[in-house]
User: Fold these one by one.
Assistant:
Number 1:
Amino acid sequence: MALIAMLVVPGAVGLWLMTGGRALDVATARVIALVAAVVGGAAAVVASAQRPVIDRAWIPDLGVRWHFEIDGISAPLVALTAVIGVLVVAHAWAEQPWLDASGGERGSAATYLGALLLVVTGAFAAFSARDAVLFFIAFEVVLVPMWVLIGRYGDPHSEAKRADASARFILYTAIGSTLMLVGILLLVWQAGTADFAELPAAAADLSLGQQTLIATLLTLGLAVKVPVFPLHTWLPAAHTTAPTAGSVLLAAVLLKLGTYGLVRLPLANVPDGFSRIAPVLAIAGVIGILWGGLICLVERDLKRLIAFSSVAHMGFVVLALASGTETGVQAALIGNIAHGVISALLFVIVGGLKHRWGSVDLAIVRPALREVSPRLGFALILGLAAGLGLPGLAGFWGEFVALVAPWNPAQHTGILRTCAVIAAVGAALAAAYSLRVARIVWVGDEVSADAPHRAADTRGLELAVVAVLGAAVVAIGVAPVIVWSVTADAVSALVGGAP
Amino acid sequence: MTLTMDWGLLLPALLPVAALALILVVEAIAPTARPVLVVLAGFGLVAAAAETIPGLVGDDDPRLTLCTPAPDGRCMWDGGALTSTLQLAILLSTLAVLALISVRRAGVIELVMLLASASGGVAVVAARDLGTWLITLELATLPVIALVAWRDRRAAAHGALTLLTTSLVSFGLLVLGTALWVTATGDPTLTGESLATAWAVPEQRTLAGLATVVLLAGLAFKLSAVPFHAWTPTTLTSGPLPISALLASSSKLAAIGALIVVLAPYDAVVDLSPGPHVVVAALVILTVASMLTGTVMALRQTEVVRLLAWSTVAQAGWILLPLTALTVAGRQAAAVYTLVYAVAGLVAFAAVRAIHGRRVEDGRELTAYTGLFRRDPLTGGALALALLVLAGLPPGVIGLVAKIVALRPAVSAGLWPVAVVAVVAAVLGIAVYVRWFAVLFGEPTIDAPARPAQRRASLGVALIGSAVLVVASALPQLLVGLVS
């Protein structure tokens, strides 16, 4: 029941807002959307705790079933999606992307909110799907609403940029997911089942060549979504252009679909094939860490900077996964959650700043954030500190364990240890660029009191959103056990006999 | 020689012919009773469609007729589930085209040609012997040439001429292929046993392969697969729009049905050694070339019907993709994909007709669709759904399911490199349709075409088609399960 409510309420309301309810006025649409997000989110949390199962035939001829069930690996991600879903809808009171730069209406508020809800629904469905083909279909559900968010409600200043960013997003993601589909079909056909519970056993006696081929197709497809260097070029454009809520969903939910898919499909089902390509993945991850870090040192646009730091953080997650051990998967999962919360926090702050300042170019001299808006400033410092992996905050556990795991990998010890060492250097880069941002934005320059670019401090719902995310950053940092205790059993079952 | 006859199985093909004859008689007696004629044609199509239903819901008994006596019993007519599905789709899409032509403007020539074409299409998908197959295939396609030309426009005559030339070449190839097939197998019926016997002898094997490739080339014209596609953009843009819709739906279904009939005997030889590599290679070349050329060209179009024409070419590649596996599952998948494409294509054409009205041949640029969601939410919604289904993006889930269905047999047959090419084509395809989809948002411009006064029929077709797509998206089994 909770599972059905989690999928149907936001889905149906979202669809209705995008079609029949497009003409609703802003106030009503916001309330309806918030109620739907809260109901859906509450249902998701209940479902994560009770773990009900839906299992119905859907397309018998293809062997596809409506099979939804939340397990230890997906529970934290479902909970994260639930929280983020409510927050992004609530954020519609703080930022109104349906207005253009001069305050005129450029689109329907209901459509915007409907798109948010549909993205959340797609993520819920993908995280809880227990059937490989169903997972793919759910994966595709988020494409069109996200495209609408970026292309229609993105940066009001440049239409060309919006068109470019949204087209890039949909085309890159589609190429990834369709490659993944070929991999899934190959796997399902060879194994004779699409059920996640039966797949690993059924796929165990595939030859190494077949396993490698399937793992390559699946990993390549999912790497676009994660994104892994060099397939990341769609991400900065999408992040810079998307409205704040879109960026938050992109970073906190959509990227997680990629890493979740990596755990669920290649790692769980074709482990031998996956471990053969793991070194390539690890190297790509490490290049992503360094590349992202270096760009962050010079990037002027703060939103792009956070986007590139996402590439770097996802590099750690991928590196942890490439180790192929239980510790590695645990690190990847907590890194995932941590990155979701931290980047959501940072994007809310930076989106807010962009809204106030008109741009977030770091070359423009502005008054110190700690003076003009101390609360926003504090949240920014919290986010940056968590991002650089300060112990006691969420980012630490992901990065720390992600460096430990490849030191004792299942295979390819030499390559992975080298990668771990280089990744540690990358972690230092993260400290450097975080401090750079802190110095420019938070410390700032002394500017006369009547200067422009004074930012009002955060208040109301925006403050609430920031506070919830900040609290989550601290909570996961202090007690990572809350995530690990949920995932532990499922991960050991998944990785099986590996040390 | 006596043949066993089961009239019930033949009725889907005979009823349109009966309606046709009746129309001619009524027209001779009462030349002014035009509306009656249209009703008669509609009844003929609906009744024939109703006759296909038993084949869809029936049990697994073979539905064969026109059989020669045992022991050497050969049947020339197969009305199984796959056949019945295609027949139903051909009849209903012809009915939709009839609605698009509009009751008031449908002349007796149009009605007769439509019915003849429908009857030919229904017969060709059921035919199991080469004679019937060849004649009914031409019956399905030749009337369409007349329909394109039956229009007082220079461009239409040009389009019809292109189509006529193409059809003659195609007919020549088909006759040659038929002759080669009979030479190779010594059997005018298309059965697996005779092909397998021929396959055992190297000379006959070569000849049978050659026959199939020549037949494929002939059919590729009708399917508008690259490199036999050149007529498609010219004819579709210059002819009347409803006939373009007919070419994209009913004719396509008939052509794919005909191809399925030819490829069915290959079940018997696909696992032999040496296998039918030449046939697979020919199919793969057609598939890859159509997918890539069609999508790349469609990306460059700004005239919507030309865009739809090139997208037809691209979709022909997708239709051929599952056939490369040469299995039953592959043939069923091709039928399902064609079905989905035909419905979505019809919705798109009907929406275009509903937006531009009677003067639908002018000003069909993409810019005319700016802000359609605000200006005309019903038509805009139907068009958007059709585009999403064609692109294979949820909420058009059935389009995505169709892509999965089409990819599956090819992947199972070990042709995953072709599947990877299909990935590229699918992504480019998304770019094609999203380009149009994106235009629908936004503010309406002043020079948008005025809403036509008479468009109930077109709107009706678009909405019924959309309803089919919505239901099929929620419960894809309804559509996917039809063929098996």
Note: The two ends of chain B are 33 Å apart (CA to CA).
Number 2:
Amino acid sequence: MKLLTVAGPPSSGKTAVILKALGWLRDEGLKVGVVKFDCLASRDGDIFKAHGFPVITGTSANFCPDHYFITNIEDCAAWGAEQGLDLLVSESAGLCNRCAPHIQGFYAVCVLDNLAGVDTPRKIGPMLKTADLVIITKGDIVSQAEREVFAFRVRKVNARAHILFVNGITGQGSWEVSRLWKDAPEEAPLTGGRLRFSVPSSVCSYCFGEVNIGEAFQRGMVRKIRIQDAASAPN
Amino acid sequence: MESDLPLTDPACAEFLRTNHLPPPGGHATLEAYWHHLPWDQRENGAWTLEALRAELAACLDPSRKTKAPLVLQTLEIFHGRDKTGAPEAHDLCLLPGDVICIVGPTGSGKSRFLADIECLAQGDTPTGRTVRINGQPPVPELRFSVESKIVAQISQNMNFVMDLSVSEFLEMHAESRALASPQTALQRVLEAAVGMAGEPFGPETPLTQLSGGQSRALMIADAAFLSPKPVVLIDEIENAGVDRLRALELFVEKEKIVLLSTHDPLLALSGTRRLVIAGGAVRDVITPSAQERKACRELASIDKALGQLRERIRRGDRLDELERIIS
């Protein structure tokens, strides 16, 4: 079984793109399924079910979704194998764009949308930088020139990836995506495998549910803005 | 031992700059450079030594450098199947400067036909069509990366969303093309766009304040002069307040292949050919007849007259004499 990680900001079109690309693969007789990681209750699981794809949904609730992903992906992959899937897509929305669910040896996909603005590629960390395929959505509502500039900016932070435009509504471009997914590397062992990039080490009192503001309540790793330096910095 | 990367290579320097990393300085190896980076700079940029090495190596890969855009001489589309599985009757060969109008009701297969060209189908899409570029099947890279895609698209639903002035935006697009004289190109786009739009606008106008017609005119001029794509796909530009015939002329002058999905009689008769799509296949290929050409010239003068009336309405004129002319 092939396992793919698909990551991207909330509402960038991940679910729509996955539905279209998996549709092509299913038409060819492949058994495909989805594991959807979300931080709050999501209806996306129902959408995949309605289209007849086997799906499990994991809700990270008060856990960081990326940490939650790492601690659960092995079990989810085992579920996929039990279902006899040829290809399992793991879909997760990052919260702060700091982390990435991408794993070494597994095909990694990042979904961004054209409406996010041309400076977005620079603001997104390893989720974009370590991806093998970058999918840019919502190109049908911005100009050709803006699409070209956006892709150029993505290329500046990831020189290696394939970049494709996909229309999540009509499915234009999703056929190309399905070809690349079909050629994704075969299963590698997950246990003992490595993430492409570390997720943050910081643990502060707010991670444990603290709601009070003030230095007296701040325990663990605390990072403060050096106001003097920040105010006098050139940018 | 892996040979070390030339950190001072312009491509590497540019990569470090865009990623907010310090210039290489005197470090002999990437490893030395890495060890001198402050930890929070590595952390904030989400870098590891291996990741940085891989990215820099990719920047230096000659196959990734900006290539000269493909010079398209012929675009051939070999027949596939219709919705019943019967073979399509027509093979097509499109040349630079061709304006091909695509006609047919919703659901007839127009979108699929255009998508086959967009993805350079190789008998592997539902229609079974095959596309060849300059007589050859395309290399896989042409199909799977936006930079090498050959089709630019303009549709009625597209808007500018960037919060920039016209000139800032055009500069940004020109920069992404690494043009020799961006200012000249910028000037040309602006002149052509203003020439097509009903109302003038300047380089300082914010993109988001352009009217529908001005936006469309700018998109068309930009696609003609600044986009490297040799094929332009236009979906319904009627009623946009743009000089449509001038727009077509512009693409023809720039030797683009234009695929126009339209039922506007003026545009449909202005094309070099009309493809009639029905039941998922190209059912007919019509070359405009002499009568159609003549009718087209008359339609053009009606269109021009309507444009002048629109201009007078805009100025606040009364059109009392119009009643006499029409009746």
Note: The two ends of chain A are 48 Å apart (CA to CA).
